[in-house]
Amino acid sequence: MTTQIRGIDPLFQPIQIGSMTVKNRIYMPAMHLGMCENYEVSDQVTAFYEERARGGAGAICVGYASVNELSANVTHIGAHEDAHIPGLKKMADAIKQHDCRALVQLNHAGRYNHSMLLNGKQPVAPSAIASNLTREVPREMTKEDIDQTVADFAAAAGRVKAAGFDGVEILSGTGYLISEFLSPLTNKREDEYGGPFENRCRFAMEIFSAIRKTVGSDYPVVVRMNGNDLMPEGMGRVELREYARKLSDSGLVDAVCINVGWHEARIPQIVTSVPRGVYAYLARGIKEVVSIPVIASHRINDPKDARRLIADDMCDMVAMGRSLIADAFLPKKAEEGRENEVIHCIACAQGCFDNLFKFKHVECLCNPRAGYEFKMAAVQTDKAKKVFVIGGGAAGMSAALSAREKGHDVTLFEASSRLGGQLYLAAAPPGREEFAELAKDLATQVQVNNIRVMLKTTVDKALLEKEKPDAVILATGAEPISPPIPGADLPHVAQAWDVLEDRAHTGKNVVVIGGGAVGVETSIFLGEKGTLSGEELKFLFVNRADDVDKLYELATKGTKNVTLIEMTQSVGKDIGKSTRWTMMQEMKRIGIRTDVTTKALEITKDGVKVEGSEGIELIPADSVVLAAGSKPVSALKETVEGLGISCQVIGDAAKIGLAFDAVHQGYAAGRAV
């Protein structure tokens, strides 16, 4: 199946950024990948970016890169010394050989840097105000510090040009040093760099002016800036629009790439609950007041959305970052009419942002090759084997695809009527629908790779004896645990999985037992029942059917009273750091009661008897939902091995884990056959 675009496709028209012509409108923005050591460009990071260039991106911005020793840490790309130029040149050459424009983003972390990452040195900032991320108080920069930092940015830009990159981007947002000078929240200076808007812009404008003097008038300079800081008492949409106008009018900048939010902002920016392309309105507002190209960012993960934003004049170009981590060949697939084959980023953050918090390099749930391109080239088998993959969830489909890629004869068995498994459970709560997209994407890959699929088929000893496969990959998943609580078998008690799949009715007062990921997701799923949908809310709002406060209440307060109980001291411990805070915030907003250090003693017809910090009490409930975890289903392993067939057990069938674990284990298992 192909997608044909009638007439001129706006996504694949060239665009001019200063003196640089870019072949299409897809821009891969800079993202910290954690793939460098001691600032040196590694084979790993070079191969990562080369794959995205080969995949058809119009321009790739790498980084961010350092401007001095206080600006970054050793896992960043280095640009603060001449010794870094050879490594930068290697990366530029790798990208440019695929007709892709290459840029480097320069940045200074300011108060977001941590003394632990600076060999004990104190971070610097416009004012001595602690960061909510590091809790450290930075040193206020002197005029000499400011002058030196301006010079450092210019020198680093000169190195970028000397290394052969097509352009340079300066990060002027996200809560880093330049935006700390811009914002009255973090800039309390009383000299020429503080106070009024013009003064707060001075540091940025001095940097851009110094860079322009160093690189010349015809070298492309892009600024990555916020459209809204999303910070109380910070820079909002209106003032940042004026900043963009100032950049455009100065003649120092050739394009702006519009970011949103600081890292410490409490409004979600990158997680799966953020609607696709929702922040493009900020790019639109800036495009209305500037005369240079505007690049829109955030949650643009589908060619259709990217094309629509450009065609609707919301922006001139789209930044697709994690989208190209998930599928390096998204641009080529879109240009060739194969958009149905795109593997979409689902904004889970399990392999990208969560990895960085663990001081690991970036990986991807959707793309197990991401970060391993330098050592995971496709390998063909010398002898094709007959491979049975049993279980059509994330692990099973991933295993089938990698075994097929290796050249094996693969059959994928699934007991239910569709592929996808627990990905559809993960997709059930509001704002988590993207997990179903991954299920569909993997199923499409299974189809286009001509893998034989047997739905509604249970594999047993008789089938194995008849077909005699050479190898079996067991991906039979898990099943929910029924905890030994008296009353768990009463008719008003249901498993969370049944609730999420709408196979169980729940009453007005619901108690959810178990505060892990499934319990949290189920609580939100139930708490949202009866709230206004986005479509309903827009209709009522544009027709002024009710006041804004009432509409907000109807959009956030459902019709059920939900209580979540958890034996330990916290809920959602198995949810990634990037996502957990947003889900906790959502639970609070929709009014879910959370009782921690609370043990369920008995389920009665009237509710749940619990023991908590206040002693024993009965929580009234019309319905009780069990979310006590799951256990592996792998009984077939003994049968397979008893027949002398090679067997690998993966995913939840081996050990309960995340979807990330399932996809990566499946990929490795297929390659191992």
Automatic annotation (TrEMBL):
Which UniProt keywords are given for this protein, alphabetically ordered? Flavoprotein, FMN, Iron, Iron-sulfur, Metal-binding, Oxidoreductase
Q: Where is the FAD/NAD(P)-binding domain?
A: 386-647
Q: State any single GO MF term.
A: metal ion binding
Origin, by domain of life? Bacteria
One Pfam family per UniProt: Pyr_redox_2
Alphabetized CDD domains for the sequence: OYE_like_FMN_family
Q: Which family does it belong to?
A: In the N-terminal section; belongs to the NADH:flavin oxidoreductase/NADH oxidase family.
Instruction: Please report the name of this protein according to its UniProt entry.
Output: NAD(P)-binding protein
Q: Which organism is it from?
A: Desulfobotulus mexicanus
